[in-house]
Design goal:
With 829 residues, the chain is α/β, with parallel strands linked by helices. The chain is built from 27 helices and 34 strands. It binds phosphoenolpyruvate and magnesium ion. Phosphoenolpyruvate binds at residues 555, 557, 596, 687, 708-711, 758-759.
Length: 829
């Protein structure tokens, strides 16, 4: 359990090393942070009891209810002032609450009489608490987070006497916690150092070189883990691993898994429902895949032989995986890299070695070692990590096959078949896909498993979690795999097969036509201009978006510049990034969203007090307004992009008009300071019910509104967008969300302000006619969907879309809306 210590003063926080007094700089009294005061009242940095208030009033000590002991020492050598200029407001023994005034002091008088006003805030009982996070080199306000303390649990958490053990806490930015791919990268980084590196999470401790040990920590996004390094290059190792853990390792922001599609449409006879793991349509014969058990002898023929056999088998499998990774690239290569790391995992190898030394065969030893780790993963209870068990089973199977001499390529399938299996291992999928697989239907599996990720990457339609009903499907049965509606039709009659084949053909033709017309401006069928933009994060995205026909960017997620680093990007760095995006979009509008950080997107260098409910806490523009320096630097960078005005400014997570007004006022001040004559558009995101319901008031102050349906949905439905337990319910087509969108458009229209959508709903084909019907005139979708979005919009008239939207608003559930969308002019089918 960590303890937040807030700043007792407004001022500038720096490391104790900056204090020109060895007693503090060398931490003789303990570790802490120093503050150059800008305010004259010292307030309590936590709840607690005043244990000492020095007679001269220049220093106060407190003990928190958790037992942390803190000393606040105002200025240096101030004891010599004998109380002059200090006014104690409490006495020893008083109980205080965080923020209660403790001492007021005369800044001018003390500054004149003492060598320095710098005020160390020290944790004096280092044996009981360690500082795991601190704010330094930054402005802090009184009561803003200054330090996070963690109790010293075991000797392992203490800095060793010879100073070679170093540690640091870090909040995980990985959207799915440390799963196989990040674990493999952490292991790879750790192996580059001599130092032993461990990760601590709660009571668990894992070797950073061991993928399985890292998986078994059971971490999730936002968890705080402590990294410990011991050895000659411990500092460098610590810095490298902390930097990795603090980044998203290229995994992007957390997204809710694809909603289960099964409830969206009632199943007809002969249909089996499932969860969409990768969207698409496929028809073909079922190819059942049975995974044969591999028998292994328990007893070995001697440790030397068994060790040699294990080494040879690992080498064989390693070669095969490396070859696959090289020829595939993309997500396949990433999964293969994770498998390579498992093959060399020190904990698996140690487990196997121990068993071999006890007389087991290489196969038996490997199987035992793998199953220990499978049990550990299962024990975490974390659904996402449990999905990673497949990777361990895969590596177990590949090695056992290599030991037994059975060729792994035994899994072959007729081209055009739809694979039907209980479960599928990533390596099997890669092998089978090469023989021309058309689709995948699995009894088990999860939508975020590696198999699902691989299928999506290969464009292979896949349904998972179909249940035992799939067991009844015979080998060779004709299947219609509908991974858009979420079901398989078994042995369809001729009519159903013809209709499905026509759908597949129409989809292919639609895609080709959409691609051909991607570059043309988008109008509805009756000529209303609907802009189709793309959401982007990087220059590469912008280039891709432009190639797909994006008419601009409706959402530049500027946080990509801010996450996964130790300090905020400079104005120049930001300017270069925004200019690059603007150039890639060649004069087309670029809507830069101001830093949207906090909640599900923490940044290590912006101090956030622990929040019980981060989604309802310091998020979006609340952070920008609380850190005006950050906000102004970003605004200056945006204003400097040439040509002026190409970049528009969008304010995230607005809950009240005052926030927008404050940003607009800052923009105007910066414009006049920098002599920019051209107007620069400022708009607000509608992500809170408050913003939706006051859209007319916001519209009066904004140049445009853009609806962030991801957040709007979570706040309207009171369902956490990152919580898999409610993921199936987080559907932005819920009529309550649609009504909010409709109301936003209606209210904004009273002020003549246009409304766009930049949340995930803009990339949902089922949603586009409804959005247009509700009055949305700008759609900002993922780059790969831009051409298709344009084609869908071109296929509807505003009148038809309005009628359709009105019917959607009257539906009772998202499932009903989806069913309605499927019937609408065939556009979303
Ligand atoms: C949204 O909330 O819909 C949105 C576009 O912002 P993000 O997904 O980045 O929170
Ligand atoms: Mg959002």
């Amino acid at each position: 359990m960590s303890l937040i210590i807030t700043s007792p003063l407004r001022g500038w926080a720096s490391a104790l090393d900056q204090v020109p007094d060895p007693v503090f700089a060398q931490r003789m009294m303990g570790d802490g942070v120093a503050i150059e005061p800008l305010g004259d009242t010292v307030v309590a940095p936590c709840d607690g009891e005043v244990t000492t208030l020095h007679d001269s009033g220049h220093a106060v000590a407190l003990r928190s209810p958790e037992g942390a002991e803190l000393l606040i020492h105002i200025g240096l050598d101030t004891v010599t002032l004998k109380g002059k200029g200090f006014e104690p407001l409490v006495k020893a023994g008083d109980r205080v609450a965080r923020g209660d005034p403790l001492i007021r002091f005369d800044m001018d008088a003390v500054a004149l009489a003492a060598p320095s006003l710098i005020t160390p805030v020290i944790v004096t009982n280092a044996e009981a608490f360690t500082i795991v996070k601190r704010t330094i080199d930054a402005a802090v306000g009184a009561c803003e987070a200054l330090m996070t303390l963690a109790p010293v649990v075991a000797d392992a958490r203490r800095r060793s006497d010879d100073g070679t053990l170093v540690e640091q806490a870090v909040t995980l930015s990985l959207p799915h916690g440390i799963h196989a791919r990040p674990a493999a990268r952490i292991g790879e980084a750790a192996r580059g150092f001599e130092a032993d590196v461990h990760l601590l999470f709660g009571e668990k401790r894992g070797d950073a070189r061991s993928t399985v040990a890292l998986l078994a920590l059971g971490t999730r996004f936002g968890d705080e883990v402590t990294v410990q390094a011991r050895g000659d290059d411990a500092e460098a190792a610590l810095a490298a691993i902390v930097a990795l853990l603090g980044s998203d390792m290229g995994e992007g922001a957390p997204v809710a898994p694809a909603p289960a599609a099964a409830p969206a449409a009632a199943l007809a006879e002969g249909q089996i429902g499932g969860v969409i793991a990768a969207p698409g349509l496929a028809m073909g014969p079922a190819a059942r895949l049975q995974r044969a058990e591999i028998a292994v002898a328990r007893e070995g023929t001697g440790a030397v032989e068994e060790r040699a056999a294990l080494i040879a088998a690992r080498n064989e499998v390693r070669g095969r995986i490396a070859a696959r990774a090289e020829s595939a690239g993309g997500s396949v290569a990433a999964v293969m890299a994770a498998h390579l790391a498992l093959l060399d995992d020190p904990e698996l190898l140690a487990g196997a070695e121990r068993r071999i030394a006890e007389g087991a065969s290489a196969g038996f030893a490997w199987r035992g070692a793998v199953h220990d780790q499978i049990d550990a993963l299962r024990a975490t209870g974390n659904a996402h990590l449990i999905e990673r068990i497949d990777d361990l089973v895969d590596i177990e199977r590949q090695l056992l096959l290599a030991l037994s001499g059975v060729p792994a390529e035994a899994d072959a399938i007729r081209a055009g078949s739809i694979l039907v299996a209980d479960d599928l291992l990533p390596s099997q999928l890669v092998t089978l896909a090469a023989s021309g697989l058309a689709g995948v239907a699995l009894v088990c599996g999860g939508p975020t498993s590696h198999v699902a990720i691989l299928c999506a990457g290969m464009g292979l339609p896949a349904l998972v979690a179909m249940g035992e009903a799939l067991d009844g499907v015979a080998d060779g049965a004709t299947l219609l795999l509908d991974a858009e509606a979420g079901h398989v039709t078994v042995d369809p009659d001729a009519e159903a097969a013809t209709i499905f084949a026509a759908r597949v053909a129409a989809r292919d033709a639609r895609r080709a036509a959409a691609q051909a017309a991607a570059a043309d401006a988008c109008h509805s069928a009756d000529g209303t201009r609907i802009e189709v933009f793309a959401n982007i994060g990087t220059v590469e995205n912008a280039v891709l978006a432009a190639a797909q026909g994006a008419e601009g960017s409706g959402l530049v997620r500027s946080e990509f510049l801010f996450l996964g680093r130790d300090s905020a990007p400079s104005e120049e760095e930001q300017l270069a990034a925004y200019q690059g995006i603007a150039d890639a979009l060649a004069g087309k509008p670029v809507i830069v969203r101001l830093l949207d950080i906090g909640g599900d997107k923490p940044a290590a260098y912006i101090p956030f007090a622990a929040e019980e409910n981060p989604a309802l806490g310091q998020r979006g523009i609340r952070v920008g307004l609380a850190h005006p320096g950050l906000l102004e630097t970003q605004l200056r960078a945006i204003l400097r992009v040439q040509p002026v005005g190409q970049c528009r400014i969008m304010v995230p997570m607005v809950a009240s008009v005052a926030e927008l007004v404050a940003v607009r006022a800052t923009v105007e001040r910066l414009r006049s300071e920098t002599g920019i004559a051209e107007a620069v558009a400022v708009g607000a995101m509608v992500e809170t019910p408050a913003a939706a319901m006051t859209a007319d008031l916001l519209a009066a102050e904004a140049d445009f509104l853009s609806i962030g349906t991801n957040d709007l949905t979570q706040y309207v439905l009171a369902m956490d967008r990152g919580n898999p337990a409610v993921a199936a319910g987080v559907d932005a087509l819920h009529p309550a969300v649609l009504r909010m969108i409709g109301e936003t458009c209606r209210l904004a229209a009273t002020r003549g302000t246009w409304v766009g959508v930049c949340g995930g709903l803009a990339s949902d084909p089922a949603a586009l006619p409804i959005l247009v019907g509700l009055g949305v005139t700008e759609i900002s979708a993922v780059p790969g969907f831009v051409a298709e979005a344009k084609a869908i919009v071109r296929g509807v008239t505003i009148e038809a879309a309005r009628g359709h939207a009105a019917r959607a608003l009257a539906c009772t559930s998202a499932a009903e809306v989806r069913a309605l969308a499927r019937q609408f002019g065939g556009v979303a089918a």
